[in-house]
C-alpha cells in the first residue's frame, strides 16, 4: 500500500505558505528603489500591467502544474515529458544555489537583532581610536552605521581577491539560522504548515506598526511626496517596463519549483485559480505597502540629515564671525549669508569653501537598494528614533520572518523532489534528508562569512538565478502549452477542479507570457554581452566609501559556472534520456 | 601717581591677555544651544565665576596653590560669547605655561562644565582636546548571551521533534503488523452471493453498529 501524500491541513495553510514564500525581502528592499528610480507613482502603471499580464498567468500555471502532477518539480516535469525532467533538475539546482546564499541574510538579521539589545545602539556611535583623542578614522570618513555594517558585521576586505578568514561571530549566526530552518522543515508539511502562519502574518503586524510610526515621524511627508509625485515621462523609458516585468517575475518566486512543491501537497479539487490571484495581489500590495513605510523612513532620515547639515553650516558661520549664539536660524540663513557676504567679503569667501551645500532633494534622491537599504539606511533612521532599541528589535525580527518564510519555500523546492524519489526516501528518513541538506548548505555557506564573503554574496545574488529562471519558466510555459498540449491540460484541470479554463489564461499562457519572457531574456543577454567588463562595488576603508572594481578571472569563471550549471541541466538531461531510450530500444530490438 | 600705576597695571594686563597671545586660550560658549529657553545671560558675574573655576583648577596643580581669582585675566568678550583668557603667576608679570593650564583644565573639565550647566561641546576650550569617554564594555558581550539562549531553545526543540518522530515511527511499525493479520482474514472470508462478492463492512470504511457487536473480535475465525 502506498503511503498517502502529506497534505496541508486546510487551504489556508497553502495560501499562507505561498504568501510567506513570495513576500520576501525583495518586496521591502527592491521595490521602493525601483519606484524611486522610475518615476514614483507612475511606476505603478507598468507594475500593475505586468502583474496582470505576466505575474498572475505564470503563477497560476505553476500552481496548476503542481496540483495536477502531485509531485515535486522533477517528477512533475518528468510526467509531462521524460525529456523535460531537466527542467525540474535545473529548478532544484537554482534553488540550491539560492538557499546557500539567502540564509546568510538571515544570519546578518540575527546579528543585528542580537545587537539591538544594547544602549546605545552599537551602530549609533563611532568607536574611539587608539589614544582616545578622537573617533576611529574609518568611522569618521564613512558614517557610524556604514562602519558597523562594513567593519563590525562583515569585516570586509578591500577586494574579492583577498579572502581573509571566516568571521566566527557571523559563522555562529549562520549556524543558528540553518538550525532554525531545519527546525521548521523537519517534519515536512506538518511542521511547515504551522510555521507559515507566523512567518506570513507577523511581518504584516510589524509593517503596520512601522507604518504608523513612520507616518508620525518628522519629515516623513517629504519622503512620501517625493516618492508618489508621478514623473510621467518615465513611462516612455523602456527600462521602467523591463524592471517592472523583472520585479514581478522574481518577486513571485517563479521557476524555483517551490510553488510546484507547495501545490503538490494540495487536495486535487483545490481552487488554485482563486489562490493564484489572491497570492499575486497580496504580494504586489505588500510591495506598495512596504514602499510607503520605506519612504516615510527615507523622508525622516533625509530631513534629519538635512537639518544636521544646516546646523553645521550655522555653527560654522556663528563661530567664524563671532555672531550671537542663536542669532542665525534655518529661516534667516540665506539673509545672513547675503549680509555677511557683503559686509566681510574676504573672510566670507574663505568660510564659503568649507560650507557644504545642504539640499533636501539630494538627500532624498540617494536611492539605495538591497542589503544597503535594509542594514544601513534603515538602521540609520532607527538610531535617531526614540526608544530605538524597540524599533530595532521589531524591524530585524520582521526581516527574519520574511527571510525565513522565503527559505522555507526554497528548501521545500529541493526537498520535495528528493523525498518523492523512491531511491532516496527508501534509504533515509525525511529528517535525515533535511538534516543533510541543511548541513551541506551551511558548510558551503561559510564562504559567505569570510572577509570577502559579501562580494561572493553579490555574485550569487546577481547571477545565480536571473538568466536561468527566465529560461526555466520559458521552457515550462512552452512545454505545458505545446508539448503537453493546452487542450489536454485544460481538460485535466476541468476534471480536477470542476471549473473550465478562462480564455484569458489560455491566451496568456500560449502567447503573451512566453513573448514577454523571451524579450526579457534577450534584453538581459544583450546587456551582459554589451557591457565590457563585469564590475562590482568594493569598500575602500581609507576613503570610507564604495569604489568600482573589475572582477578577476576566477570570479568570472564562477559566474559562468553558476549560470551554465543550471541552464545546461535542461539540454543535458534531455540528451541523457534520449541516449537511454536509444540504448533500451537497441536492447529490446536485440532481445527480440 | 596712583592713576599712573593703575594705567601701568591695565596696560601690562592688556599685553598679557590678547587674542593669540602666548599661553592664551580661546573659550567659546553656546548657552542658548544648550539650554534653549532657560539660557542665562552672560554678564560680569558669570565671568567672575569662570575666573573662579579656572583659579580653582590651577590651585589643584602642584606649586600653584597660591593662584588667586585676580590672576586669571579675560579679554575680547564677544556677542558669540567667546573670549580669551590667561593665567598669570603671583608676580602678575608672566603668564603660566600653556601646558600646565591645559592639564589643569583637562583634569577638572567636568566640574567646570557643571558649574555652567554645559558640556564639552557647548563649552569649548579651543586647543584643549577633551578626553572622550569610551563606551563601557560589559565583560561578556550582550549579544552572545541572547545568542546562547536562542541557540539552546532551538537545539532542544529539534531534539524533541526528532525523538517524537522516531517514537511515532516505531508505533507505526508495530501497528501495520496487526492490521495485516485482519486483512488476511478478510480476504479469506469474502463471500459470494449471486456471483457478486460481498466485501465486509470494515474494509469499506463504514461505521460498525456497536449494538450488534458483542465481542471485540470483528471477524469470526474459520
Q: In total, how many beta strands of chain B? A: 6
SS-based class of chain A: mainly alpha
Mean pLDDT of chain A: 88
Helix content of chain A: over 70%
End-to-end Cα distance of chain A, whole Å, is 34 Å
How many β-strands of chain A, per DSSP? 2
**Could you tell me how far the N terminus lies from the C terminus of chain B, measured between alpha carbons in angstroms?**
147 Å
Mean pLDDT of chain B: 78
- Total DSSP helices of chain A: 26
Order of helices and strands of chain B: HEHHEEHHEHEE
Overall form of chain A: elongated
What is the beta-strand fraction of chain B? 5-15%
State which percent range the strand residues of chain A make up.
Answer: under 5%
Q: Estimate the global geometry of chain B from the Cα principal axes.
A: rod-shaped
Q: Rounded to an integer, what's the Rg of chain B over CA atoms?
A: 47 Å
Q: In this structure, how is the largest beta sheet of chain B organized?
A: 4 strands, antiparallel
**What does the main sheet of chain A amount to?**
2 strands, antiparallel
* Low-confidence parts of chain A: none
Greatest interface and its residue counts? A-B, 33 and 32 residues
**Strand line-up of the largest beta sheet of chain A:** 1-2
Structural class of chain B: alpha+beta
What does this structure look like?
The complex is a heterodimer of chains A (592) and B (222). Helix content of chain A is 73%, strand content 2%. Chain A is mostly helical and 592 residues long. A two-stranded antiparallel sheet of chain A has the order 1-2. In chain A, strand 1 and strand 2 (545-550) form a beta hairpin. In chain A, helix 4 runs parallel beside helix 12 (238-251). The radius of gyration of chain A is 27 Å and the shape is elongated. The mean pLDDT of chain A is 88. The mean pLDDT of chain B is 78. Chain B has six helices and six strands; from the N terminus they run αβααββααβαββ. In chain B, strand 2 (72-75) and strand 3 form a beta hairpin. Chain B is of the alpha+beta class. Chain B has helices at residues 2-16, 31-35, 44-59, 98-107, 109-115, 142-188, and strands at residues 25-29, 72-75, 82-87, 123-125, 191-193, 196-198. In chain B, strands 2-3-1-4 form a four-stranded antiparallel beta sheet, with helices on both faces. A two-stranded antiparallel sheet of chain B has the order 5-6. Chain B is 45% helix and 11% strand. The A-B interface holds A 110-111, 114-115, 117-118, 120, 125, 127-128, 132-135, 172-173, 176, 179-180, 182-183, 186-187, 191, 318-319, 322-326, 429, 431 and B 28-33, 39, 78-82, 129, 131-132, 134-135, 142-144, 146-147, 150-151, 154-155, 157-158, 161-162, 165, 169.
Amino acid at each position: 500500500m502506498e503511503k498517502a501524500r502529506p497534505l496541508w491541513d486546510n487551504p489556508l495553510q497553502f495560501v499562507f505558505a505561498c504568501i510567506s514564500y513570495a513576500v520576501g525581502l525583495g518586496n521591502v528592499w527592491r521595490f521602493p528603489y525601483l519606484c524611486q528610480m522610475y518615476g514614483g507613482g507612475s511606476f505603478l502603471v507598468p507594475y500593475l500591467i505586468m502583474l496582470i499580464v505576466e505575474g498572475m498567468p505564470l503563477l497560476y500555471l505553476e500552481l496548476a502544474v503542481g496540483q495536477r502532477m502531485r509531485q515535486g518539480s522533477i517528477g512533475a516535469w518528468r510526467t509531462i515529458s521524460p525529456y523535460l525532467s531537466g527542467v525540474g533538475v535545473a529548478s532544484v539546482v537554482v534553488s540550491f544555489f539560492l538557499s546557500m546564499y539567502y540564509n546568510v541574510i538571515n544570519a546578518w538579521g540575527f546579528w543585528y537583532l542580537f545587537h539591538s539589545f544594547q544602549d546605545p545602539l552599537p551602530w549609533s556611535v563611532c568607536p574611539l581610536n587608539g589614544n582616545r583623542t578622537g573617533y576611529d578614522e574609518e568611522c569618521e570618513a564613512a558614517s557610524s552605521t556604514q562602519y558597523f555594517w562594513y567593519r563590525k558585521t562583515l569585516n570586509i576586505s578591500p577586494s574579492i581577491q583577498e579572502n581573509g578568514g571566516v568571521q566566527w561571530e557571523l559563522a555562529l549566526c549562520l549556524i543558528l539560522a540553518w538550525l532554525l530552518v531545519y527546525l521548521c522543515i523537519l517534519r515536512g508539511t506538518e511542521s511547515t504548515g504551522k510555521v507559515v502562519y507566523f512567518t506570513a502574518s507577523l511581518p504584516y503586524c510589524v509593517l503596520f506598526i512601522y507604518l504608523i510610526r513612520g507616518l508620525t515621524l518628522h519629515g516623513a511627508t517629504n519622503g512620501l511626496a517625493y516618492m508618489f509625485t508621478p514623473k510621467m515621462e518615465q513611462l516612455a523609458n523602456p527600462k521602467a517596463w523591463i524592471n517592472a516585468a523583472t520585479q514581478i517575475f522574481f518577486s513571485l518566486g517563479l521557476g524555483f519549483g517551490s510553488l510546484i512543491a507547495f501545490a503538490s501537497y494540495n487536495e486535487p479539487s483545490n481552487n488554485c485559480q482563486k489562490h493564484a490571484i489572491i497570492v499575486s495581489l497580496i504580494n504586489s500590495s505588500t510591495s506598495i505597502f512596504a514602499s510607503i513605510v520605506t519612504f516615510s523612513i527615507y523622508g525622516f532620515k533625509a530631513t534629519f540629515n538635512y537639518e544636521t547639515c544646516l546646523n553645521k553650516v550655522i555653527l560654522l558661520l556663528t563661530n567664524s564671525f563671532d555672531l550671537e549664539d542663536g542669532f542665525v536660524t534655518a529661516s534667516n540663513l540665506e539673509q545672513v549669508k547675503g549680509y555677511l557676504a557683503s559686509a566681510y567679503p574676504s573672510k566670507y569667501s574663505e568660510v564659503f569653501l568649507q560650507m557644504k551645500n545642504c539640499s533636501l532633494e539630494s538627500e532624498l534622491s540617494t536611492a539605495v537598494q538591497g542589503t544597503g537599504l535594509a542594514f544601513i539606511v534603515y538602521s540609520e533612521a532607527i538610531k535617531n528614533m526614540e526608544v530605538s532599541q524597540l524599533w530595532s528589535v521589531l524591524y530585524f525580527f520582521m526581516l527574519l520572518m520574511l527571510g525565513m518564510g522565503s527559505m522555507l519555500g526554497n528548501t521545500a523546492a529541493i526537498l520535495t523532489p528528493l523525498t518523492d524519489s523512491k531511491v532516496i526516501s527508501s534509504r533515509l528518513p525525511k529528517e535525515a534528508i533535511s538534516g543533510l541538506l541543511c548541513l551541506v548548505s551551511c558548510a558551503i555557506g561559510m564562504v559567505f562569512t569570510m572577509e570577502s564573503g559579501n562580494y561572493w554574496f553579490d555574485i550569487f545574488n546577481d547571477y545565480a538565478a536571473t538568466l536561468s529562471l527566465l529560461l526555466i519558466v520559458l521552457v515550462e510555459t512552452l512545454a505545458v502549452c505545446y508539448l503537453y498540449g493546452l487542450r489536454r491540460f485544460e481538460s485535466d484541470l476541468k476534471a480536477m477542479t470542476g471549473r473550465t479554463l478562462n480564455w484569458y489564461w489560455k491566451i496568456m499562457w500560449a502567447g503573451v507570457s512566453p513573448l514577454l519572457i523571451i524579450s526579457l531574456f534577450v534584453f538581459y543577454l544583450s546587456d551582459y554581452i554589451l557591457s565590457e567588463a563585469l564590475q562590482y562595488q568594493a569598500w575602500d576603508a581609507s576613503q570610507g566609501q564604495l569604489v568600482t572594481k573589475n572582477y578577476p578571472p576566477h570570479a568570472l569563471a564562477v559566474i559562468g559556472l553558476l549560470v551554465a550549471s543550471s541552464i545546461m541541466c535542461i539540454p543535458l538531461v534531455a540528451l541523457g534520456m534520449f541516449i537511454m531510450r536509444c540504448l533500451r530500444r537497441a536492447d529490446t530490438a536485440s532481445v527480440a | 601717581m596712583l592713576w599712573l600705576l593703575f594705567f601701568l597695571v591695565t596696560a601690562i594686563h592688556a599685553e598679557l591677555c590678547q587674542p593669540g597671545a602666548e599661553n592664551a586660550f580661546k573659550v567659546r560658549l553656546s548657552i542658548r544651544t544648550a539650554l534653549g529657553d532657560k539660557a542665562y545671560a552672560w554678564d560680569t558675574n558669570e565671568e567672575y565665576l569662570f575666573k573662579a573655576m579656572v583659579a580653582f583648577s590651577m590651585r589643584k596643580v602642584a606649586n600653584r596653590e597660591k593662584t588667586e581669582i585676580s590672576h586669571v585675566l579675560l579679554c575680547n568678550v564677544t556677542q558669540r560669547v567667546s573670549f580669551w583668557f590667561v593665567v598669570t603667576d603671583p608676580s602678575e608679570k608672566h603668564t603660566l605655561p600653556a601646558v600646565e593650564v591645559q592639564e589643569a583644565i583637562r583634569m577638572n573639565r567636568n566640574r567646570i562644565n557643571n558649574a555652567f550647566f554645559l558640556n564639552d561641546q557647548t563649552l569649548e576650550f579651543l586647543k584643549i582636546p577633551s578626553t572622550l569617554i569610551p563606551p563601557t564594555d560589559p565583560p561578556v558581550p550582550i549579544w552572545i548571551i541572547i545568542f546562547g539562549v536562542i541557540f539552546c531553545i532551538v537545539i532542544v526543540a529539534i531534539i524533541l521533534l526528532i525523538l517524537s518522530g522516531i517514537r511515532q515511527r516505531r508505533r507505526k511499525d508495530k501497528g501495520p503488523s496487526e492490521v495485516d493479520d485482519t486483512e488476511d482474514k478478510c480476504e479469506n472470508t469474502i463471500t459470494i452471493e449471486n456471483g457478486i462478492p460481498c466485501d465486509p463492512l470494515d474494509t469499506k470504511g463504514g461505521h460498525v453498529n456497536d449494538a450488534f457487536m458483542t465481542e471485540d473480535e470483528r471477524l469470526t475465525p474459520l
